[in-house]
Design goal:
By secondary structure, the chain is an all-alpha fold. It has five helices and no strands. Helix 1 runs antiparallel to helix 4, helix 2 runs antiparallel to helix 3 and helix 4 packs antiparallel against helix 5.
Length: 181
């Protein structure tokens, strides 16, 4: 009887994570840089999506904190479910964000005084840190599901605070912009 070595999931998962980590931000960047090329009136009122995005981001932040609490209580199955829900909401946000980019013209920020630089600091840091969230979250989920808990904990040490920051600042960006929608 010949024993075969089980397939190494890293062989397919890591290239997939890398491919998605490059492709998704590129698609979003193209949509932002060339809005007129991909413009499509989808019949969605432009003012509704930002509130929906804030709801998704706020719920994601709550789920991330719930996931932290659950894992601190060693409730692994509940932690896993909550974190997958957070990832799912982030995916829904990303799709909805892309839809909003092809459906509506950008809304400029109209604030003045000290709020203006604060808004742009939050917005720019939110955008820059949103890029690594996808690969970090996918890698953390992958390591958790493959039972590589040491690697999972090491990646989550960076993933969690960045993802939480992006979720919370997503809500803040909405609150800053809400009067201008």
């Amino acid at each position: 009887m010949t024993m075969t070595k089980p397939a190494n999931p890293d062989r397919w998962a890591l290239p997939l994570i890398l491919t998605l980590s490059i492709a998704v931000p590129l698609v979003v960047a193209v949509l932002i840089l060339f809005p007129d090329v991909f413009k499509a009136d989808l019949g969605i009122h432009p003012g509704t999506l930002p509130a929906f995005h804030a709801l998704l981001n706020g719920t994601t932040a709550v789920l991330l904190l719930a996931g932290l609490y659950l894992i601190s209580q060693r409730k692994i199955a509940a932690h896993r479910s909550v974190m997958m829900a957070a990832f799912g909401l982030s995916a829904v946000f990303l799709v909805s964000y892309v839809i909003s980019k092809i459906n509506a013209d950008p809304t400029p920020y109209g604030g003045e005084g000290w709020l203006r630089p604060l808004y742009f600091f939050i917005l720019i840091s939110h955008i820059l840190l949103s890029v690594p969230v996808l690969p970090l979250a996918m890698l953390a989920i992958f390591r958790g599901y493959t039972g590589e808990y040491g690697k999972h904990r090491r990646i989550v040490k960076y993933t969690f605070p960045i993802w939480l920051y992006v979720a919370v600042t997503g809500v803040l960006v909405y609150l800053f912009m809400q009067p201008y929608y």
